From TrEMBL, chains A, B:
InterPro entries: ADH-like_C (IPR013149), ADH_N_2 (IPR041694), ER (IPR020843), GroES-like_sf (IPR011032), MDR_fam (IPR045010), NAD(P)-bd_dom_sf (IPR036291). Keywords: Oxidoreductase. One of its GO terms (molecular function) is oxidoreductase activity, acting on the CH-CH group of donors, NAD or NADP as acceptor. Signal peptide: none annotated. Residues 15-335 form the Enoyl reductase (ER) domain. It comes from Falsirhodobacter algicola. Coiled coil: none annotated. This is Zinc-binding dehydrogenase. It comes from the Bacteria.
Length: 340, 340
């Protein structure tokens, strides 16, 4: 018998999640049936969308039930197999959630080749966040050569891929991030054309200076005051993939004025803007294979760079997650659950 | 020598236009040159966009200069021709503005066949407003069979075409209009599936009842409180062609709270909505011919209905225009400038 340790949702948070909204449990897993594999979690991805799943509000995905294991993308090792498609020791990308072990029928497992890149990259550059950037740009943003692509939370796993893919497509990449260290990273290590610190007092003016030809694609994943600075810079026919509005995830109740909607609707009308919300699952079945082919080649050619912020042990997940919602991490936040 | 009578912009209105913002003048037209035609205006279209052109504010089109002829779509007869492409008596759609006669090089004239439909329809069902509805639905709304299409200002020239084209494409049409008479007209004469009076106190609830399967396409041409009632009804992947926000045309300065933007952005994200602003000129060159072919066939088959609100004589234009901005007309507002 195998024991799994897991972190479940104890309470639905009101506003900022607290450590007490999570609870750690252990459970015995049943014997493997024919066709099943036992998976040992190596890496757990922590992502902002999980905050939404902790709420009961209607959304594109069902909420996590109280007492249920927190959802999450994982990389795991096949520890035992009674499935002919999988061998002990295979590395897979899967969605085990916040737990050390899980049993799978094999459905939905994606093989990870450790010779292409470190397996943890299956959680970002060669995984969900990379695909989110690739699919949002490819299906909605559609940057043309020479156009300007702006992205906020640009040092994060989605934003850093948005900028790098924009560059690979021949566009100009402008990143928005918090603090000088992250901005330097964008330009010096990821190759962005410019980076702007949203904490600067004259942020709107600095952003305008960084985008002398306006903005053709704004990859929206933060909302809030950054949007107010971006809106006047959007060009005629600009495209805005709306992938997240982290600034509002902890909102509850009515927001105070002024009412910013008429200004946004007026800009949509007068500049023929496109705003399109999406989550990557819309495009996953049709396009994930193409993405992995293209992105794996980029990785092999050294054209994609990334940064991981790895914390150790499943117990560290709640605190790391709460910190991430406040922007404390720098790089893709990953929990190392077991040694590779 | 031919004399033209024309109405020019005398002053830029502050708020509601006044009769004194217009001035009537007469002028002698020069002799026709080779290649030119003399046009006699038969019908002048009056449309809300003209209010914007009276202001100096930056928009997608240049303002009318003080002392210049008010712009406007017209149907005219060729009164004299020194152009081999046009014969005396030909009927054309053109943009003569608010005047009785004009000289043209022939560029931009569109032939109107009086055997297809009454020539005044070239100003609405077979003209700009019809094309606006057709292009917004075809390029952005893309209603599928069985989907629900909602439109506000539904008894107006754009809205009435949106609903009728939606029906012809196999979708369900729900119109929003002001007052019982207009709502009855939508259902009984235009064939909408349902009509909802936005003046009703329980308007949001009535709209929800009229859209039991939600809304897949909302053709936005009013903004304001109607949007707040529509937003919760929009389905996953709903499309919103943004064609006008009349409710905000008179806004100035900061709008008071609550801030409605986070709610709209949250819906865009969680329901993968598309909002896309447009003006019909974007699609005109590529698609106007296809539109006229399809819509002319619909007219010939009796599948499109319309209502004209015709006033007599160019002198009546200013008062009719001012009344239109207050919603006094019922049907496409047209000035009959000369007998057909």
């Amino acid at each position: 018998m195998t024991q799994t340790t897991r972190i479940v949702l104890a309470n639905r948070p009101k506003g900022r999640p607290q450590p007490t909204d999570f609870r750690t449990e252990t459970a015995e897993l049943p014997e493997l049936q024919d066709g099943q594999v036992l998976l040992e979690t190596l890496y757990l991805s922590l992502d902002p969308y999980m905050r939404g799943r902790m709420s009961a509000a209607k959304s594109y995905a069902d909420p996590v039930e109280i007492g249920a294991v927190m959802v999450g993308g994982t990389v795991a090792r096949v520890a035992q197999s009674r499935n002919a498609d999988w061998n002990e020791g295979d590395i897979v990308a899967c969605g085990n959630g916040w737990q050390t072990h899980a049993i799978s029928s094999g459905a939905g497992l994606r093989r990870v080749d450790p010779d292409v890149a470190p397996p943890s990259t299956a959680l970002h550059v060669l995984g969900m966040t990379g695909f989110t950037a690739w699919a949002g740009l490819g299906n909605i943003g559609k940057p043309a050569k020479g156009e300007t692509v702006a992205v906020a939370a640009a040092s994060g796993p989605v934003g850093s891929m948005v900028g790098q893919i924009a560059k690979l497509r021949g566009a100009r990449a402008v990143g928005i991030a918090g603090g000088a260290e992250k901005c330097a990273y964008l330009v010096n290590e990821l190759g962005f054309d410019a980076a702007v610190d949203h904490r600067a007092e004259d942020f709107p003016q600095r952003l305008a200076e960084a985008c002398p030809d306006g903005i053709d694609v704004y990859f929206e994943n933060v909302g809030g005051p950054v949007w107010d600075a971006v809106l006047p810079l959007l060009n005629l026919y600009a495209r805005v993939p709306v992938c997240g509005i982290v600034a509002h995830y902890n909102d509850h109740g009515e927001t105070t004025g002024p009412d910013r909607l008429p200004g946004t609707m007026g800009a949509i009308l007068s500049r023929s803007l496109t705003l399109r919300g999406f989550i990557m699952s819309e495009f996953m079945e049709a396009q994930m294979g193409d993405f992995l082919t293209e992105a794996s080649a980029w990785v092999a050619e050294g054209k994609l760079h990334w940064r991981e912020d790895m914390v150790d042990g499943l117990d560290a997940a709640p605190e790391a997650f709460i910190g991430m919602l406040e922007g404390k991490n720098f790089g893709k936040l990953i929990v190392k659950v077991a040694d590779l």
